[in-house]
Write a structure and sequence with these properties.
375 residues; alpha/beta; TIM Barrel; eight-stranded parallel β-barrel; 17% strand
Length: 375
C-alpha cells in the first residue's frame, strides 16, 4: 500500500476502521436458513464463530457454560477476580455501584481489588467448574504470567489456551525472569491449541503464526473499555489490521506447506455489522466483550471493564456503563427487539452472508467491500 507523507521526517500508510468500509451486495442472494456459521479450530467445532473476551465483566464460570451451550467459546480470565477471590460476588456488586462521577476513585479501587494475588487452586477450581458442564473450556493469561501459571492451567485440563495482551510478540522478555517466554518452544511443548495476540500488522502476525499458534488475535482487545490509544498512542484501525493479518495467514499457509492459522478479530466490534465486516475482511472468528456485557447474566451487571483498568502502574482502561438489553441467548441468536445491532449478533451475520449470496464463513471472506469515507 502506498505511503503518504506525514511530515518531512515520517511517512505512513492510510488505514481504515470498520466505519470506513462496507460490504457490497452481489448478484446472488440466498435464504439465511441455508447459511452455515460453523467454525472449527483444531479438534473443536463451534456453531458460531464467536468468542467471549476474557474480561471479568463478561465471562464468569456460569456465563462460560451458557455461551458454550449457545454454540460459542467463552474465554475465562485466569488473572481476574475469579482466580483471586473464592467468592467475588460482593466485589462485582461494589464495582457496578461505584460513583461514576469520580473516575479516579473508580480506578484506584480497581487497582486495589486486582492487587490480590492469583491463587493457583482457584484456577483449577474454575476450569473444573466449566469442564464439568461438558462445554469446551478456554482460559487466558497475559504473556507476563504465562510461564509462571501455565502448568496450573494445563493441569486443570484446559481445552484451549489463550495468551492475550495489549500486543504480543513472538518472544516476550520479562525483567523479573531469568529466561524470556519463547512462544515457539512453549507452544510446541503443549498438547492443546494455543491462541495468541494481539497483533495488528502483517509482520507481527506472521511471526506469531510461525510459533505454531492455532490462532492469532487481531487488535489490542478491550474495545469500548480500552484507552490504549490515549495512554500509549498505539492503535491500528481494525479493518486494515484484519486485512493485513489475513494476508499473513495466506502467506504462512504457503510457507508452511498447508498449516492454517486462524485469524480472530479481537475488540472494537460493538454491533453486529462490525462482526459481519470483520469476517468479510478475513477473520475466521471474532472475540467480543461489550455486546455480551449487556446481557442480563453478565457478571458486570451492566458495567464493562478489562484487566487494563486495574493495572497497578499504568491503567489503560476504564469502567464503562453498557446497560442491559436481554439474555445471552437473545443477544447471540435473537430475536432482537432493537434496531441498533446490539442483539441477534449471529442472526445478523447469517443475514449479511445470505444477502451477498455466500453459504459459509470461508466463502464470505471473498465478498466485495467498498471504502465509504473520503480522505
Amino acid at each position: 500500500m502506498t505511503e503518504i507523507e506525514i511530515g518531512r521526517g515520517k511517512r505512513g500508510r492510510v488505514a481504515y476502521a470498520f466505519d470506513d468500509v462496507a460490504i457490497a451486495p452481489s448478484r446472488r442472494t440466498r435464504d439465511p436458513e441455508s447459511v452455515s456459521t460453523v467454525w472449527q479450530i483444531d479438534a473443536y467445532r463451534f456453531e458460531t464463530p464467536l468468542l467471549a473476551a476474557p474480561m471479568d465483566s463478561v465471562v464468569s464460570p456460569e456465563t462460560a457454560v451458557e455461551i458454550g451451550r449457545l454454540g460459542g467459546l467463552a474465554v475465562l480470565n485466569l488473572e481476574g477476580l475469579w482466580t483471586r477471590y473464592a467468592d467475588p460476588q460482593s466485589l462485582f456488586e461494589e464495582i457496578a455501584s461505584m460513583d461514576a462521577s469520580d473516575p479516579t476513585a473508580v480506578t484506584r479501587r480497581l487497582q486495589a481489588i486486582y492487587a490480590e494475588p492469583i491463587k493457583p487452586e482457584l484456577i483449577a477450581e474454575r476450569v473444573a467448574q466449566v469442564r464439568s458442564s461438558g462445554v469446551v473450556t478456554a482460559g487466558a493469561l497475559s504473556p507476563q504470567r504465562t510461564a509462571q501459571l501455565a502448568k496450573h492451567v494445563i493441569d486443570a485440563g484446559i481445552d484451549v489456551f489463550v495468551i492475550r495482551g495489549t500486543t504480543v510478540s513472538a518472544e516476550h522478555v520479562g525483567a523479573d525472569v531469568a529466561e524470556p517466554l519463547n512462544l515457539k518452544r512453549f507452544i510446541y511443548e503443549l498438547d492443546v491449541p494455543v491462541i495468541v495476540g494481539g497483533c495488528a500488522t502483517y509482520q507481527a502476525a506472521l511471526h506469531l503464526m510461525r510459533t505454531g499458534a492455532a490462532g492469532v488475535l487481531v487488535g489490542f482487545g478491550g474495545g469500548a473499555a480500552h484507552t490504549t490509544r490515549d495512554v500509549l498512542g498505539v492503535r491500528v484501525p481494525m479493518a486494515s489490521a484484519i486485512s493485513d493479518v489475513a494476508a499473513a495467514r495466506r502467506d504462512y499457509l504457503d510457507e508452511s506447506g498447508g498449516r492454517y492459522a486462524h485469524v480472530i478479530a479481537d475488540g472494537g466490534m460493538g454491533r453486529s455489522g462490525d462482526i459481519a465486516k470483520a469476517v468479510a475482511l478475513g477473520a475466521d472468528a471474532v472475540m467480543v466483550g461489550s455486546p455480551l456485557a449487556r446481557a442480563t447474566e453478565a457478571p458486570g451487571r451492566g458495567m464493562h471493564w478489562g484487566m487494563e483498568a486495574g493495572h497497578a502502574e499504568l491503567p489503560r482502561g476504564e469502567r464503562v456503563h453498557m446497560g442491559t438489553v436481554g439474555p445471552l441467548a437473545q443477544i447471540i441468536h435473537g430475536p432482537s427487539y432493537v434496531a441498533d445491532g446490539t442483539m441477534n449478533l449471529i442472526g445478523a451475520l447469517r443475514r449479511a452472508m445470505a444477502t451477498t449470496g455466500y453459504s459459509d464463513l470461508k466463502e464470505f471472506q471473498r465478498v466485495e467491500m467498498v471504502i465509504t469515507t473520503t480522505r
